Amino acid sequence: MSGSAVSVIVGGLALMRERQKVLTAVAGMAVTVVAVVVSLITGKELPQEPAPITALALSVLVGSAIRTLPMGPAAGIAVGGVVVTGVAWFSGWSGVTNLATMGMVAALVMGPVLRGLDRKQNVNAPAPHGPWANLPRS
Asked: Own/partner pairs for 94-102, CB < 8 Å, 24+ apart?
């Protein structure tokens, strides 16, 4: 897989994450892990994966999932993100693996922080009123 094609796919999934958080996060991890494994198998013939844009998009997917999903799925996606990042390290240390790791660490830190801030803000929020108050959530 070409690095730019993987980046476009995972970046597109990150942009569509509001509709299906679990599905987009799992799909992003699946595309990224396939790209990483292909990169490991081919050696120097293809660019090392995950590319910086792919790593950023995957971090957005993981952090967003941790922030908004129930604890079980959020924990599963967090573990999956760590596994994908860990698999990238089989190719050895490089700037690419370093950036991917920093992005995943940022997602694993900021997801729970923003989750806690959201919970704190919603505690004192007034109850919704009016015709738009009880809309189904996706």
From this structure: 94/48, 96/48, 96/49, 96/50, 96/51, 96/52, 96/55, 97/48, 99/52, 99/55, 100/50, 100/52, 100/55, 100/58
pTM: 0.82
Confidence of residue 59 (pLDDT cuts 50, 70, 90): very high
Distances (CA, A) of 3 to 34, 64, 77, 82, 97: 12, 23, 23, 20, 14
User: Distance between CA atoms of 6 and 52, rounded to whole angstroms?
Assistant: 11
